[in-house]
Amino acid sequence: MKFAIVSKGDARSEQIKGTMTQYLTDFELEYNANEPDLVISVGGDGTFLEAFHTYVHRLGSTAFIGVHTGHLGFYADWVPDEVEKLIIEIAKTPFQVVEYPLLEVIIRAKSGGSEDRFLALNEATIKTADGSVVFDVEIKGEHFETFRGDGLCVSTPSGSTAYNKALGGGIIHPSLDAIQLTEMASINNRVFRTIGSPLILPKHHTCLLKPIVDRSFLIAIDHFTTNYTNVKSIQCRVAEERIRFARFRQFPFWNRVRDSFVADDNH
Ligand code: NAP
Ligand code: MN
To answer: Per the domain annotation, does 170 fall within a domain?
Structure first.
């Protein structure tokens, strides 16, 4: 089996990366950064996002696992003290795989017909540095509302505990194939009216955002933001692709939510 390690780059993460590389190589696993079967992220959730985007082109043949060197992470759930145990588990392959849904985003340009396609593990956000965003929101091909405000966040179930949560969105279990739309400070008056509540869309219910006022948009896919001009539409839906996690023990999603946000002393 081939593996690769993506480290946050700080001394502690680098040291763990070194130890893991050495031990796994001793177990006859091959370090291969180009075609890994297993990608180990050492750092935080941000590092895991980085690892995901580095290998997003080969999701079908890559499984991910995270070791956290800071506080408990949603994606990085193994602690440094457990690294030796984890190495033995990895060496005993094959391992069990758990899949989580992803968000597909297609940004189409007004002229020239070009389009960019992305997969997000957490979310996409659409904002502007230039006043308010104003766009028509279509769901399944039907006009739903005209949104005016700071922006919109479209998140995956595993991303529902990140930015989405700060916007008052619900926490969605990753066994549900869904995406969630949350508003950022929508303007509501007699002229503009939006639903105001987060919306949860199932698979195949495509959401299309069509800018009305020509602005440049700041479109973030997870931790990476791009400035777009000339945007015709932004299409969001549950992706066909999924992320695969290597699972060596149970750590239920709700326990992770509790340990991160409520208390971690009541196991
Ligand atoms: P960051 O500023 O370090 O991330 C913000 C926090 O979100 C960090 O504590 C990060 O954990 C945590 N996080 C990331 N994914 C999570 C998840 N799925 N569930 C719960 N917490 C999560 O930037 P970053 O590390 O590059 O992460 C980018 C993410 O930050 C974006 O995808 C977005 O979700 C989030 N974000 C949140 C807000 C907000 O809450 N107002 C604003 C902007 C961005 P680590 O410290 O372990 O990295
Ligand atoms: Mn971070």
So the answer is: yes
Q: What is the CATH number of the domain that holds 84?
A: 3.40.50.10330
User: Which residue has the CA at smallest separation from atom 18 of ligand 1?
Assistant: 159
**pLDDT of 266 strictly over 80:** no
Average pLDDT over residues 51-71: 96
Same domain, 107 and 232: yes
Amino acid at 153: C
Say which of 45, 130, 136, 214 is annotated catalytic: 45
pTM over 0.85: yes
Distance in Å, CA 51 to ligand 2 centroid: 13
Q: Length of the chain in residues, anyone? A: 267
pLDDT at 265 over 80: no
55 plus 38 within the same structural domain: yes
